[in-house]
Amino acid sequence: MKYFYIVFCLLFSIFHVSAQVIAYPSINDSKVLGANCADLHFVNPIVIGHQLNVSVSYYVSLSDAQNEANALERFYEPISNPQTIYVRVDSNLNSDFAIEEYIIDSAVSDGGPPPGISPCYFDACDVDGNGSEIIYLNNLRCKYDGYGFPTTAFCGSLDNEIETTYYLTENDAVNETNSVNPIYTLTSSQTFYRKIKNITTNEFLIDDLLNVNLVSCITDTDLDGIPDLAEDSNKNLLYDDDDTDQDGLKNYEDADDDGDGILTINEDYNNNGDPSDDDIDGSGVADYLEFNVTLSLEDIKFNSVTIYPNPAYESLFINSKEDLESVTIYNVSGIAIQNVSFKKISQTDKISTENLSQGVYFIKIKSGSRNEYHRFIKN
Questions:
Q1: Which of residues 198, 215, 232 is at a domain's end?
Q2: pLDDT grade for 161, boundaries at 50, 70 and 90
Q3: Which among 31, 47, 225, 349 has most CB atoms closer than 10 A?
Q4: Does 118 score more than 70 pLDDT?
Q5: CB–CB of 279/292 below 8 Å?
Q6: How far apart are CA 358 and CA 356, in angstroms?
Q7: Which domain covers residue 174, as residue numbers?
Q8: Where are the beta strands (DSSP E) in 236-335?
Q9: Do 361 and 330 meet the contact criterion of CB atoms below 8 Å apart?
Q10: Would you say residue 374 has pLDDT above 50?
Q11: CB distance 367 to 373 below 8 Å
């Protein structure tokens, strides 16, 4: 008889300081490693979601999470069943953070895979069809009932004692030769062996045999311009656990992934037919996954207005198929910094940009019965 641990998340935020940092809910079938303990890092990719430059820590109480006191070790032995813990996601760039409540629930299993190596299978989408794709081995987890460690003493390992490495053969993993970078450029189907080792006791577990296939991806369920397999914002090669705006629709089912009122397919600001390579605010996260990179829930992109020159210097000219009424300029944080109302209704006008600092801006143009927005650069 074997115990394993499942991490559940209550679907509400306990504490949230900034809209820019989110602790995302975990899916209910996220099985974690463990004989007598849970590997809390198992849920990290789901907790972080699409966010970059963030850190994750776990705590027994909400007050500990708020005060960053008594953080739990990665391999944690629950003190009750079930047990509520708290996960905190911190920005590495500023003081923003978010906290979510989790429940660790132990269960009993007479089946499941035996201790040791168990294979898992993943498909990596070759998004641009160039024959290669970057994958993140540290984010790959298998949906099995659990694994047994060689001894329960491994559960007492401290975070600074744990080392995780990846290899292309089992022999290399055993002998610790020819390790590969966990951020790996995949050019064909490949098998990886993951070794988790306590560097103090030298006890180790080669726990996963990861089989990753590089595949072409065409199916686009929500018709948002991004194939289903590529809608993997947390980079764990599972597209059925990504719901960036937490609206109950997985990203591959959701035509507005970040819930900002702008369809994903319309967040293609460079107009190259691919929303995944647009990053207006330079955050490293595509605009279609960031709620703040938008102007209004009512704004829609119609392409009935042209602006020039772009980049702009002292003036920006606006040409519209309908009469122009007003223009509002926003910075990349969505803050309105200039508003112009046109006294004389016409389809062509110009506004001064000489007082704007160099950088990227949005311009919202009210023209007839609609609002349209564009991006421009001030040089």
A1: 215
A2: very high
A3: 47
A4: no
A5: no
A6: 6
A7: 118-215
A8: 305-308, 315-330
A9: yes
A10: yes
A11: no
